[in-house]
What does this fold into?
Amino acid sequence: MTDDAANANLKSAKPKHIILTSHQTRGSTKVVPIQWGAADPRQRGPVIGSLRSLKHRNVIGTHAGSYGVYRALAVASGVLDPTHKADLTNTAPVVPLGPYPSWSDPDKIVSLDPFGAMAGEVFADCQGDEYDILPTIAITKAHINIPELKDEIAQGRLQVDGSLLKADGSLVVTKAAIDPVWYLPGIAKRLQIEEWELRRVLFQQTGNMFPELVTRPDLHVFLPPIGGTTVYIIGEIEAIADPSKPLAVRVHDECNGSDVFGSDICTCRPYLVHGIEVCVQTAQEGGAGVIVYCRKEGRALGEVTKFLVYNARKRQEGGDRADAYFLRTECVAGVQDMRFQELMPDVLHWLGITRIDRLVSMSNMKYNAITNAGIEVVDRIPIPPELIPADAQVEIEAKKASGYYSEDGVLLGEELAQVKGREY
Ligand SMILES: [Zn+2]
It folds into this structure.
């Protein structure tokens, strides 16, 4: 087939008419219900969010979080056949994970599908052409190579063992990518609001993007157009849920400026690398380490807001001061933080975690969310002072003054105001 003929075929595959799914029709009574919290994945039912399975869809929204919009561009521009069915051959998890008792507790996991990695196998017999049941979790393995780990090996802070940490500084990991799957009654309960109120405000604040939120009370699961979570596992996967073995965890919220580009205005990358170091040490003691990386850039306010706040901080009277750190964010965004750590422990429950021996975080919000979720935390590991960049003193002192975990003194009042950052 010529390219032109292929393009013509793709264009003809694009549906020209619009099928509204905002009201329940006779056809939609065939929808397979999702019994959130059921222990048997067959009884729980598949999450069907693919637009190929229009009459079987049992969720609001579609797959791949915010990337669903790129799929629309690909279909609109004729490069993706909207009838393409995913070929899931050889895509199953490389290591088994779960199920754990938490998977069948509808209160413990509400923001991801615990069976999301198994969709291809569990519903293999529903893979007829009219169904398109896609995994929302993928589990693979990788070698990661972070320059700071080589330095730590050279300094004797980390030991090469040849299997987990290799002589060239590369680290062997198992990693899982998780797309958000929200069980709306559970999210509402977690946030202590009415489900109807949650649905109404989600509808309104997304510019009415998802009418089913208000017109389809029979659909309880929402695939929100937001970023997901990546889990990096260091050590044996079985050790994570085994309370007789030590476990280190860092829950890290994305900070592209520091994590990737090495900006020195915050402690994100150095603290992330320290978390990996503690994970390696704990795995080498026979336990495991877990890094949870959440796409919640700029405290889930986004990078534009974050950079606006940087400007407001640097240009305010008296310069960038620790005592005005949170205030400047609040001036621009209306709040200090929109990460909603209440939902974060779901991923820890998915991993079967019941106790964390070393929580590599100083955040009181993360600590409170984890312990309120019934997970025991033994030790909290602050960032070593020598890893804090000079310009990030403003952030760390402001956070300590606001209640972040600290093993040394907290500065207040005039002393706090004296902690200043660079002009730019
Ligand atoms: Zn940062």
